[in-house]
Specification:
- The chain is α/β, with parallel strands linked by helices and about 400 residues long.
- It has two domains: about 280 residues, Rossmann fold (3-Layer(aba) Sandwich); about 100 residues, Dihydrodipicolinate Reductase, domain 2 (2-Layer Sandwich), CATH 3.30.360.10.
- It contains 16 helices and eleven strands.
- The strands form two sheets. A seven-stranded parallel β-sheet has the order 3-2-1-4-5-6-11, sandwiched between helices.
- Helix 7 crosses helix 9.
- The longest helix is centred in the C-terminal third of the chain and has 21 residues.
- It is globular.
Length: about 400
């Protein structure tokens, strides 16, 4: 069944968003196969998911650049997008560029602020004004494109950690603090979440940023009878951890230490070169071993920005474990991949699954999507196989 679906991307001109858009255009034109798309597995064929021809893109971004320019950079600088594919998508990319509006630049940290359009840096916009502006942008996008539904996805740069423990737990309490009086500082990722959920739209946070995690924002989603999920897409090293750690646990092999060293050179890497932003990412990557194993091995995670690598990243992991007769042994592996190409198909999957869940009236956290995230909200299960079984069980329950 055909349905026009609006996809509103936060960080719409970044590497992941650009690759998502080019990917959908390539699928529409038959220029690529469907590798990497979980939603195309046979187990989900009966779900009547939204088709490639029905995606319509818009979004917010804080930078002065064009979508065409960013797509060309992915080809020339990172050798990610094939020239044959890119050349056939340029006209559509220029059209989509017209749907991208200036983003929100509140409580994102100095590094992200430094990347922004000077007009945004000089803005005195309040938190409530930012929410209302974002809602109006999305509403106009939906009206102009005759859209039945819009899904909002955050694929922007990682914000510094902002403690939300002192926030009220209900939406009715939180909304009284959004009047610009400075009583509470809400990061842009959460302002976008509020804007989307308050409008009744599904929201997906693919980043480690706070997003919709606070209880009061979850309460808002339930009040507006919509759904959300996050956070931090699980694409590479952490994906392998979530698959390998259960193997050690099931063989009763004691992991004494697990060290991971990550290097990459894209915009995300540049932002994570700031220690405050990096702390958010490391916290997200470092939580699952304890929850899978039931004890805490010594861990160390490093993330380093190496500009020459562009969108390509390498992760080297060293696992020191104890076997029979107390003998120490070592497993090492190197993971190399293109950051945006690993993330983009998962973003597409999340959009399709979230739209399907919303269509059938699901409300609140979509915990069956846990397998897509490093730090899935609302669920402690981090074993990848068990997480995937949750997705299959959800799909099996839909006729």
């Amino acid at each position: 069944m055909a349905r026009r679906l609006g996809v509103w991307l936060i960080g719409a001109k970044g590497g992941v968003a650009t690759t998502v858009i080019v990917g959908i255009l390539a699928l529409k034109k038959g220029l690529t196969a469907q590798q990497g798309l979980v939603s195309q597995l046979a187990a989900f064929a009966h779900l009547d998911l939204v088709g490639w021809d029905d995606f319509v893109f818009g979004g917010h971004d804080i930078r002065e650049c064009s979508l065409v320019h960013e797509a060309k950079k992915l080809h020339t600088d990172s050798r990610v997008i094939d020239e044959h594919v890119l050349s056939q998508c340029l006209a559509e990319l220029a059209e989509i560029d017209a749907n991208i509006r200036p983003g929100i630049l509140l409580n994102v940290g100095k590094t992200i602020e430094g990347l922004a359009d000077p007009a945004l840096r000089n803005s005195k916009e309040t938190q409530m004004a930012a929410i209302l502006r974002a809602q109006q942008d999305i509403k106009s996008f939906a009206k102009q494109n005759d859209l039945e539904q819009v899904v909002v996805v955050n694929v922007a740069s990682t914000e510094p950690i902002l403690d939300a423990q002192s926030w009220p737990e209900t939406w009715d309490e939180l909304k009284t603090l959004l009047d610009g009086s400075g009583q509470i500082r809400i990061p842009s990722s959460s302002l976008y979440a509020i804007a989307a959920l308050d409008a009744g739209l599904p929201y997906i946070n693919f980043t480690p940023s706070l997003g919709s995690a606070p209880a009061a924002i979850g309460d808002l989603a339930r009040q507006r009878k919509t759904c959300h999920m996050g956070h931090d897409g699980k694409t590479g090293e952490t994906l392998l951890k979530s698959a390998l750690a259960p193997m050690f646990a099931h063989r009763n092999l004691e992991i004494m230490s697990w060290v991971g060293h990550n290097i990459f050179g894209n915009m995300d890497g540049k932002v994570l070169d700031d220690p405050e932003n990096k702390r958010t990412k490391v916290k997200s990557k470092d939580r699952l071993l304890r929850e899978i194993l039931g004890y805490e091995p010594q861990t160390h995670i490093s993330i380093e920005y190496i500009e020459s690598l562009g969108d390509w990243k390498t992760a080297w992991d060293h696992i020191h474990f104890r076997g029979f007769l107390g003998t120490p042994m070592v497993m090492q592996f190197t993971w190399q991949g293109c950051d945006s190409l690993l993330a983009a198909p998962l973003v597409i999957d999340l959009i399709r699954f979230a739209e399907r869940a919303h269509r059938q009236g699901e409300v609140g956290l979509l915990t069956f999507l846990a397998s897509f995230f490093k730090s899935p909200l609302g669920i402690q299960e981090n074993n990848f196989e068990r997480q995937f079984q949750l997705l299959q069980a959800w799909a099996d329950g839909i006729e």
